[in-house]
């Protein structure tokens, strides 16, 4: 059973303020990559700050099924005994990656050059998401990949003797596709190069470097050569800025808020949410900037501030791609109009995040016009309040958390349906959010029927 098949809803009392200090769980993108590279490295990797969410645990389970021994995770600590680039074993069964697009796309590349076959499957949402974007370039590298006629999972990766490096211009700005090809490139003859139309998160490149693998970047092009080796290195994973985003927005829109988010990842390729919120007038102070495990981190102190609508700059879109559900709530509470364009990728995430957010905002009385590649939102202004009511998260973790924080500026209670997948990226969201002042309770199906 997938997480979204269980029925979980959030109930929120209107109003409240966020105060105090909070460390949100470890970065999801980095946690996936930590498991993958640690598994392929020579030696034992000690990881701390690992995200114990369903998505990164699905990646870990996949490597365990391929014979990688690991202890943990427990309290964010995970020890992975690497098997080397050629040490993975045939899992003997399909690898179920649940709700996780990152797992499926990165593993497609990592497993395309193995000498055994693998099948990658996922839940209903993941089985709807486009995989052609990795299948096509991986086939150019010589991979044998089977998929549905629409290019979707289940994916069958057939054994190949060797892949061939390619020089690939990404048609969409996607860190998952870039990373998939770089991971395939570890197994390819010659050089694999990927150029991106706009900068995307660079955790794969950074972590390959930390494991001693040479990665060359020139402008928007990143290259590596196959046939090297990865050497285990300790990893500390920062708090996930994508999870912090809900609190950055929540504290900005809720009068009286003063919240400090600690040890947040500040990689410039992830900072769109901070840049966009600041441009909207948010009061976010970056305190104690420092380094953690090859990634910049800082504490973020956010205080309530009146926000105003903006036209979101194009270059910020890939840098905030997962934060738009939260940013749409900020826009709904801002003075004036916010316009997002160039973000059609939002339609192929865990849900169609443009349509689902537009529907939920409309249910709460906000004028939100979905567009093919974005959204126009008329904000309620500093004195305005969202209506209460019921909204559907459609099993999408980020939609569920975005509407949860929206209640901080609502006039009446909000109920968010189909929230179980919050577990994929933010275990104990409810407990941590409640501890800093979000008036949230969760209702499981059985409780609702009682
Ligand atoms: O590489 C990654 O870890 C991710 C890249 C992004 O996806 P795309 O590559 O599809 O933009 C993002 O939406 C996803 O949550 C995580
Ligand atoms: C899009 C997301 O993740 P993934 O692509 O890994 O499912 C996300 O976490 O918002």
TrEMBL record:
- Pathway per the UniProt entry: Metabolic intermediate biosynthesis; chorismate biosynthesis; chorismate from D-erythrose 4-phosphate and phosphoenolpyruvate: step 6/7
- Residues forming the Enolpyruvate transferase domain are 14-430
Q: Which UniProt keywords apply?
A: Amino-acid biosynthesis, Aromatic amino acid biosynthesis, Cytoplasm, Transferase
Relate the assembly described in the record.
Answer: Monomer.
Instruction: State the organism named in the record.
Output: Halochromatium salexigens
Which PANTHER family does this one have? Answer: AROM/DEHYDROQUINATE SYNTHASE, PENTAFUNCTIONAL AROM POLYPEPTIDE
Source organism's superkingdom? Bacteria
Reaction catalysed by this chain?
Answer: 3-phosphoshikimate + phosphoenolpyruvate = 5-O-(1-carboxyvinyl)-3-phosphoshikimate + phosphate
Q: What is this protein called?
A: 3-phosphoshikimate 1-carboxyvinyltransferase
Q: Which family does it belong to?
A: Belongs to the EPSP synthase family.
Which residues constitute the catalytic centre?
A: 322
Q: Which residues bind 3-phosphoshikimate?
A: 28-29, 33, 174, 176, 322, 349
EC top class, as a word: transferase
